[in-house]
Amino acid sequence: MMKAFYPESVPVIPENTTIEFELGADDAHRVMTMLRFVDTKLYPEILSRHYANQVTVTLDPVGSTGIAVMNSYPSEILNNTKTTDLWHTPEKPFVKVSVWRQKARLRVYLDETKVWDIPRAFQPGADYRMIFETNTFYVKDREVFVTDLRVASGLPDTRSKLLTEGKFVTSGILFDTNSDVIKPVSYAILKEIGQTLTDNPAVKIRVTGHTDSQGDDQSNLTLSGKRAAAVKAALVTNWNIDEARIDTDGRGESQPIADNATAEGRANNRRVEFVKL
After folding, report:
1. Taking the CA atoms of the chain, what radius of gyration do you get in angstroms?
2. Which of the following CATH numbers is that of domain 2-153: 2.60.120.200, 2.60.40.10, 3.40.50.10490, 1.20.1260.10?
3. CA dihedral 103, 108, 113, 117 (to 10 degrees)
4. What is the pTM of this model?
5. Which residues face 80 on adjacent strands?
6. How many helices (H) and strands (E) does the chain have?
7. Chain center to CA of 77
8. How many CB atoms lie within 10 A of CB 66?
9. Distance from the CA of 141 to the CA of which of 41, 45, 120, 195 falls in 20 to 30 A?
10. What is the pLDDT of residues 125-142, one digit of tens each?
């Protein structure tokens, strides 16, 4: 039995998009789930079984993940599978799935591990839509558990900016108010920094925190340093980066890049900079 659904609020996936969600299983519900991207221009009937320009990521809690790419039905240009050992019920029923589309390229992470990196997965000029599809193998009363779905467009090419340009600046790493506690929404950017450092073990960086002008100068200076240290701690803890590779610094409100008189300007000034050393 096949079941399919798609988020109506996400009609077309932009060329630079991150998709994150938690996929769950339990002893009675270990259902293979497929995350498909299909070209809506070629097949307006979104649930047609004959997809062209299709990219499919298969997630099977029993112990595997797969990737398939086709540019015309039924011709496949890529089909591969590898084993996984991430779902453990009941102690660890959910796994975080992160997907990054960057133009033609597709990267897929399960928890902190990159499982697929396909340079030419998406076809130029195609309008891809996201579809979740399940295969219950004709067993009734089995469901898929998907939660915390987030779709964000416009994430910059962190790897290129840091390695090639030598500097990456982001206001997308968010903290609790007047705190150095990193908000969960910051995961996608931290993951890209962590993966870049993992893939390039000789690279060293400096993390610099900045604040807006609200509050007194000294408090902001202290807070910015603590936030830079929190980012370093996240990279060391979650991606096993050697702490000797990361310096930290805090500049408080001393180096604004936008007008602190507006809410938008203050948000841009509350930023974190990564500089290749």
Report:
1. 21
2. 2.60.120.200
3. -60
4. 0.61
5. 67
6. 4, 15
7. 25
8. 17
9. 45
10. 888 988 888 865 545 555
